[in-house]
Specification:
- The structure is a single chain.
- The chain is 66% helix and 0% strand.
- The chain has 4 helices and no strands.
- It is elongated and about 55 Å long.
């Protein structure tokens, strides 16, 4: 795992993050990690590229009706 050190972070920012972390039941480090992971999600073009790759990978396959399987499961 990589580590990241953020220098010269405004004290007010840290103080605003602490209650947020507490509300979510996380440490300050855990909260910052979640925020950074969310911020580093795919861009729209990257997401489109990944979607196209999955479409190519899954094309031509025979897939059942999942709604029907869910209904059957509920009836049990």
């Amino acid at each position: 795992m990589s580590q990241l050190l953020v220098r010269d972070l405004d004290t007010g920012t840290v103080e605003r993050l602490k209650p947020r972390a507490q509300r979510h039941g996380r440490s300050l480090q855990g909260e910052v990690k979640v925020i950074l992971q969310a911020a580093a999600t795919y861009s729209m073009s990257e997401a489109g590229s990944v979607a196209e790759q999955w479409q190519r990978k899954l094309s031509g396959g025979a897939y059942g009706d999942s709604a029907e399987a869910i209904r059957e499961g509920r009836e049990r």
